[in-house]
Design goal:
Length: 524
């Protein structure tokens, strides 16, 4: 599909060279690709940043095809081969030996969110989060001016109207074939005006801050009323992930007196960490057990967890962090840059303030010390405590991350043992992304599997994996290595697969009910 018939000889030569190369490697042909997604995004950024919009070419179609292919080969060398070589050089020069978890994290974190995703999960969760975000903003008096300006800019009546029109763009991606590109052709001026405001503008430089502009504007207009999808992934993520940036831009243009102050903290703390997490866990746990949200706990104690649940002798404590990792650390060839930023965001910041891991350990200390005055019926000699870290971006579903962060947790937990506290019934820390909770909400609500059992199984089979206990026993070193690598998988993959293996069928009824909200007024 890459070459036209006039490049048949060129294509045959390339294909023969690829087959010769693959024959000398361990992986099959199906594992290789030329249009690697990161290279595609870098190529598109280069075109927007360097090539003038009125640039004309004297090259033939045959030449353009060959040179585009060569550009991909060069970009693949930079984004894959050179990355691997420079990373190894840094480790050799600094005598660094990585643990298996660190090595996997170094390999996967920089591109995990770009290549590992399920379209149906991504779409369902982006839509639900989008709807929740608008519902949250609509409830707040300090956001009324912002929403009015937002609706005026996009020429819609309200958020339901906005989401209906956005749904039309995203639907084209959901219907696409795996090997095809997607075009959208419009005739109505109203629709063109709306979609033009979600199009990357070739007169503006696309920043290299983790493809931020492409994420926010993943469409390219190549003729009047005709558009092409730059990134199917970013088109779906435009629904929620891109919404914050669009709202932020409009908020900054409002008169100072009308602006929403602390808009970033409003989204990361009050919306993500309080509104969404509390609502979701209340639905999953139901009207059972002792449950308290972070806002409820703040009335009892300073430094309270973001959510607390006790079922008899089993306690779940949650910390939630709506954070991102900078592009510089994410794409760095030196794994220490990433690990240092992760520690600052999830363990302890530059000023010595405790972050998620240390906050969870402090909550555990208070529970074991009898200082959890918000729950007076804890039997300290029998209680089991399960610490959970909720993160709000898929980039953290990278192999090795949970193992690395849990190691910090275990080391910090040892300080409690030194104080004389019994930590034998404190379980490993599990990282769960918010979209995995959303995607499996119904299965958790109807108890196809409980959070309790999921945490126990992930701890036993993943975080505490021991090859000696593997069943069935690996028959070769290759099988043993595969099992070891699987043990570093994120909780998201484990839970999605587990729910489906237990026979749960994802009907989509909950999503349909949410989508129907957008059309209620029309039905009336």
């Amino acid at each position: 599909m890459f070459f036209s018939s006039e490049n048949a000889e060129f294509a045959e030569t390339i294909y023969a060279n690829i087959l010769e190369y693959v024959s000398s490697t361990e992986k099959p042909l199906e594992m290789y690709e030329v249009p690697y997604v990161v290279s595609s995004l870098k190529l598109f950024e280069f075109i927007f940043d360097v090539i003038p919009n009125d640039q004309e070419t004297t090259k033939t179609n045959k030449e353009i095809e060959q040179e585009t292919f060569k550009a991909y080969v060069l970009l693949n060398q930079i984004t894959i081969t050179d990355r691997y070589l420079l990373g190894n050089q840094i480790k050799e020069e600094n005598n660094i030996r990585l643990t298996p978890a660190q090595a996997l994290l170094e390999i996967t974190f920089h591109n995990n969110d770009l290549i590992n995703f399920r379209v149906e999960k991504l779409y369902e969760c982006q839509f639900k989060r989008d709807l929740l975000y608008f519902e949250f903003l609509e409830q707040r008096d300090d956001c009324k001016d912002l929403l009015v300006a937002f609706y005026q800019y996009y020429e819609v009546t309200d958020y339901k109207d906005y989401l209906k029109r956005l749904f039309g763009i995203v639907h084209a991606v959901l219907m696409m074939d795996k090997e095809s590109h997607v075009e959208i052709h419009l005739e109505e001026q109203e629709s063109m005006t709306f979609i033009d405001k979600h199009v990357a503008n070739v007169d503006e430089h696309i920043t290299e801050v983790d493809f931020l502009n492409v994420r926010s504007n993943p469409l390219y207009k190549y003729a009047e009323g005709k558009y092409r999808i730059i990134s199917p992934l970013f088109t779906i993520e435009m629904m929620y992930n891109g919404l914050f940036f669009r709202l932020k831009a409009i908020n900054e243009q409002l008169p100072v007196i009308d602006r929403v102050s602390g808009f970033y903290n409003l989204k990361t703390y009050e919306f993500s960490e309080q509104f969404v997490l509390s609502k979701l866990l209340r639905e999953i746990y139901g009207n059972r057990y002792v449950q308290k949200s972070g806002s409820e706990l703040d009335d009892f104690i300073d430094g309270a967890p973001d959510y607390y649940m006790r079922n008899g002798n089993y306690i779940h404590v949650y910390e939630s962090k709506d954070i991102l990792i900078s592009k510089e650390s994410k794409q760095s060839y030196d794994h220490r840059d990433l690990e240092n930023e992760l520690r600052v965001k999830l363990f302890e910041n530059e000023r010595g303030s405790a972050k998620a891991v240390k906050q969870l350990v402090e909550t555990i200390r208070k529970i074991l010390n009898g200082e959890a005055i918000y729950d007076l019926n804890i039997r300290l000699n029998r209680v089991h405590i399960f610490p959970v870290l909720i993160l709000h971006y898929r980039m953290f579903n990278a192999a090795g991350l949970n193992s690395l962060v849990n190691k910090w947790f275990v080391q910090e937990l040892a300080t409690l043992e030194a104080l004389g506290l019994d930590i034998s019934r404190v379980h490993d820390l599990v990282i769960i992304d918010i979209e995995t909770l959303m995607f499996n909400r119904d299965a958790l609500m109807n108890r196809t599997i409980t959070i309790q059992n999921a945490l126990l199984e992930y701890e036993r089979d993943y975080l505490r994996f021991n090859i000696a206990n593997a069943r069935p026993r690996p028959r070769s070193e290759q099988e043993a290595n595969a099992l070891l690598e699987k043990s570093f998988w994120p909780f998201s993959i484990f839970l999605d697969n587990k729910v489906e293996k237990l026979g749960y069928r994802r009907s989509g009824k909950d999503l349909l009910a949410k989508v129907n909200v957008l059309f209620e007024d029309e039905e009336e």
